[in-house]
Amino acid sequence: MKQLKGDFDSIASLFTRFARHVELQPNNVAVSDEHTTLTYSELAQRATLKANNLRLRGVKPGDNVGILLNRSVQQVVSVIAILQLGACYVPIDPDYPSERVNWILDTAQPSAIITTQDIATRFALYDMGHDKRHLHLVSAEHIDTELQLQSDVSIEPVRPNCPAYIIFTSGSTGKPKGVAVGHEQVLALLDSALAKMDARAGDVWTLFHSLAFDFSVWELWGALSTGARLEIVPKSIAWSASAFSDFLIDKGITILNQTPSAFYGLIDVQGSLDNTAEPLPLRYVIFGGEALNLDRLKSWWAKYPKGQPELVNMYGITETTVHVTWLTLHENMDALQSPIGIGLESLEVILLNDNLEQVQEGEVGEIYVAGEQLAYGYLGRADLTATRFVASPFHHGKRLYRSGDLAMRQGSNLYYFGRADRQLKIRGFRIEPAEIEAVLISHKSVADAFVIPTPANKNGLVEGLLAVLTTKETDISSQALKAQLKSHIAEQLPAHYLPTDFLFVSELPLTINGKLDIALLHKKWLSTQNMHGTKLQQRMQLLNARKQQLNNADV
Fold first, then answer.
1. For 1-182+194-232, which CATH class?
2. What's the angle, vertex CA 93, arms to CA 156 and CA 506, rounded to 5?
3. ∠ CA 171-177-181, rounded to 5°
4. Closest CA to 269 of 246, 251, 250
């Protein structure tokens, strides 16, 4: 097979990190999905073919290239090919609605999209070739045979200050915003975080998350930059805690990265197994993406004591390249707190008040982050970039990223206090949902709890709180449990902390990024309100009919 020519060893980049292991262990397995397994050498060959194809279609270093593919080895091949070419990958999840896909395409303006015919058809991207945006649709299915007759294509070495990827996150306006991150930022993350681990070439990592969620950057490059194996988790298995538990054993997974919401399901499955069940082969479980509830780890500690596997909590932000802090967890930690540890070596975490003054130890402040992992900014949003990436008052010429998250420092450790914008104001009272959640979880019948605002009324105002709960096995009715929970809260919190209603669910619904699906919970709750309203209307109609009968009888 003909290779792309270029001096890739002269400058550090994500591709050179991968290429190092292609040379050291070409026959070791690099990546697997349900149907395909590739060694490091085979992965490099396929990536070169695809990079060759992209170059011949006019893709240049610095271009944006979309990846619109289902979970598969082809995703990983595409990422490496794009980076090998010096371009920037833009992951788009095929489960996104058309409106979001079109927004991302219009904003990122990719010169090409790697996709399949069926996905292109579903999103009306037309035939393989040029679509309505004058970009190339590159087939993921036929690229290998298509390129057998192509000649070598020379390219320049990738510069570390080039953008590596653009990931779109939810925006406050409802429109996603693209965060541009370079090779140098990801390399700083890998150097800082992997130094805290005993990561080995013999490890097996999962690619559990959507490529469009930045947790996948850590999963993919944590594996490929250490010569480990990457197992792509099929979507059907990722959404079934029981099937995923079996998958971890079958594939010999040693390093698992999870959002807490996703991991709680695995905890429940493991807790239901007897002592004769085969233990999970995990060496590390790394949490990220949302706040961790330590109380939910109690049954896990009972089954896996003594830090085997090691549980790590890593607070992180897309704009600061996935992870910011590191904390090894222990079972004797205070379950009512949310510790996130200390900043990675490549970052500085500073807690500031509204006047950009550092708060004292024990005081809550907003998290600001400085250092080598700060993203370049938001694509096409210079105004928003200037608002969130601010000039540091402590270091001339340096930037700080304003996270919008609250934390408190005790000693060297940071403790997470939620989003500054998650603090709610209901009927004039400021309320921190985490306080209510902690009280609810302390009730013997509650397995998990999350407090969200009720949907806004027609005037755009939020008037109440909705407590979403999963329960432990109990014979008590939902109405009786509601009464108990109201009393339980009233005993510990002021009256204005009492939720407007309680929604019981079998499991907390998650988005494709593994985070709590607030929109779906609102929909579920509104459907129960409509049902109750319909029943009330029926009862009123019966009462009115009965009243009319009695009136007629009196005539």
1. alpha beta
2. 145
3. 130
4. 246
- Residue ranges of the domains in the chain? 1-182+194-232, 422-530
Q: Indicate the residue type of 130.
A: H
Could you tell me the two tokens for 461?
């105002």
How many Cα neighbours within 13 Å face the side chain of 415? Answer: 17
C-alpha closest to that of 414 among 332, 372, 359:
359
Tokens 């579903």 -> residue? 122
In whole angstroms, give the CA distance from residue 40 to residue 27. Answer: 6
Coil vs helix vs strand at 381:
coil
Q: Compute the Cα dihedral for 222, 224, 227, 231 and give only its sign.
A: positive
Distance of alpha carbon 256 from alpha carbon 283, whole angstroms = 8
Length of the chain in residues, anyone?
A: 555
Assess contact for 13 and 158: CB atoms under 8 A.
yes
Q: Does pTM top 0.90 for this prediction?
A: no
Model confidence pLDDT, tens digit, residues 358-403: 999 999 999 999 999 999 999 999 999 999 999 999 988 899 999 9
Q: What is the pairing mode between strands 364-371 and 377-378?
A: unpaired
Sort 472 into a burial class: Cβ within 10 Å, 0-12 / 13-18 / 19+. Answer: exposed
Domain 422-530: assigned CATH number: 3.30.300.30
417's CB contacts (< 8 A; 6+ apart) are 338, 364, 405, 406, 407, 408, 432, 434
| 435/455 Cα distance (integer angstroms) | 20
Query: Cα-atom radius of gyration of the chain, to the nearest Å?
Result: 26
Structure tokens belonging to residue 284: 């590390």
